[in-house]
């Protein structure tokens, strides 16, 4: 995978996020973490009051807002890159800030979540100009969603922002480099495993199912019993090179997969999520691994399945 140190450095893994210490040739021989129970609901202790957001020139970690929550409401969504069927679902407006040791322009984003009896749906929209290349994913935007699997997991791909090397728990990453064009179904739900053997790797469009314990230990989900059942479609509001507009990343996955390196979701419970986004304008050759903005340095976002 090309996005090392995904989530802070995040995902500050700072989908995650997301959304890194390995590439698409990561080995499936990595030890599989022991199965864990679904993420438990946080306690009822009141969250600390949010501090004032930083000026545009300041880095995101100066802004700590650990009280952000979003309801995943009951709805059936068609995953087609068209956000029309999300119109009546309340979203969470965010500002995604750069990682701690780099300065890139923050990005405004909106996050929505929903579920039906079978699937969880996630909509991420990011305000940014249109860049996409059929030949080089680094010249295209990229996105990732990260979910906490274990209760203590840190937002920096399982670690803390300050340490990044000591794991606090396992995280599940939906990692999306845009190798297929707008409107195309992406993910393991529609593509065979990478190189015919790696179930976490989407061989068609590079929308991969991954997990991590620390920022340097991101792996494709290739262990026994693993699978990639992600489905995603992306679009942009103005597909003209350099045009201002909004990216839409629409994603779906079964609520329960039975895979120990996937987050498992249940109506009536909470989950924790973080986001990463890469801008192809970060450099002359496109983005590099750490050239991203993300939400993890502002704390987890709590998603309540209602």
Structural account:
This protein has no helices and 15 strands. The protein has 306 residues and is mostly beta strands. It has a single domain (62-305), classed as Immunoglobulin-like (Sandwich). Strands 1-3-2-14-13-15 form a six-stranded mixed barrel. It has a two-stranded antiparallel sheet with strand order 7-8. Strand 2 (92-98) and strand 3 form a beta hairpin. The model is unreliable at 1-65 (pLDDT under 50).
Helix content: under 10%
Q: Specify the overall morphology.
A: globular
- Kindly provide the name of the CATH class: Mainly Beta
- Class per helix and strand makeup: mainly beta
What string gives the helices and strands in order? Answer: EEEEEEEEEEEEEEE
Number of domains: 1
CATH topology: Immunoglobulin-like
SSE map:
Blueprint: E1 69-74, E2 92-98, E3 107-115, E4 119-127, E5 142-148, E6 171-177, E7 193-194, E8 198-202, E9 207-212, E10 219-220, E11 231-236, E12 246-254, E13 270-278, E14 292-294, E15 301-305
Parallel strand pairs: 1-3, 1-15
Antiparallel strand pairs: 2-3, 2-14, 3-4, 4-12, 5-6, 5-13, 6-9, 7-8, 9-10, 11-12, 13-14, 13-15
């Amino acid at each position: 995978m090309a996005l090392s140190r995904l989530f802070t450095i995040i995902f500050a893994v700072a989908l995650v996020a997301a959304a890194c210490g390995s590439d698409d040739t990561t080995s499936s021989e990595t030890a599989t973490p022991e199965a864990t129970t679904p993420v438990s609901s946080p306690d009822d202790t009141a969250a600390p009051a949010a501090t004032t957001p930083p000026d545009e020139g300041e880095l995101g970690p100066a802004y700590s807002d650990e009280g952000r929550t979003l309801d995943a409401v009951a709805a059936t969504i068609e995953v087609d890159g068209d956000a029309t069927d999300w119109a009546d679902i309340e979203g969470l407006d965010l500002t995604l800030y750069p990682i701690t040791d780099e300065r890139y322009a923050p990005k405004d984003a909106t996050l929505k979540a929903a579920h039906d009896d079978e699937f969880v749906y996630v909509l991420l929209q990011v305000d940014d100009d249109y860049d996409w290349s059929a030949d080089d994913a680094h010249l295209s935007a990229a996105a990732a969603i990260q979910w906490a699997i274990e209760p203590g997991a840190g937002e920096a791909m399982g670690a803390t922002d300050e340490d990044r090397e000591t794991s606090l728990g396992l995280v599940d990453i939906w990692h999306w480099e845009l190798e297929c064009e707008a409107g195309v179904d992406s993910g393991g739900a529609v593509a065979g495993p990478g190189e015919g053997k790696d179930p976490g790797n989407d061989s068609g469009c590079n929308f991969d199912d991954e997990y991590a314990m620390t920022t340097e230990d991101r792996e494709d989900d290739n262990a026994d019993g693993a699978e990639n059942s992600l489905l995603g479609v992306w679009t942009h509001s103005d597909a003209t090179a350099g045009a201002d507009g909004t990216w839409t990343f629409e994603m779906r996955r079964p609520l329960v997969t039975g895979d120990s390196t996937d987050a498992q979701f249940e109506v009536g419970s909470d989950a924790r999520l973080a986001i990463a986004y890469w801008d192809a304008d970060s450099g002359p050759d496109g983005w590099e691994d750490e050239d991203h903005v993300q939400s993890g340095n502002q704390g987890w976002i709590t998603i309540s399945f209602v």
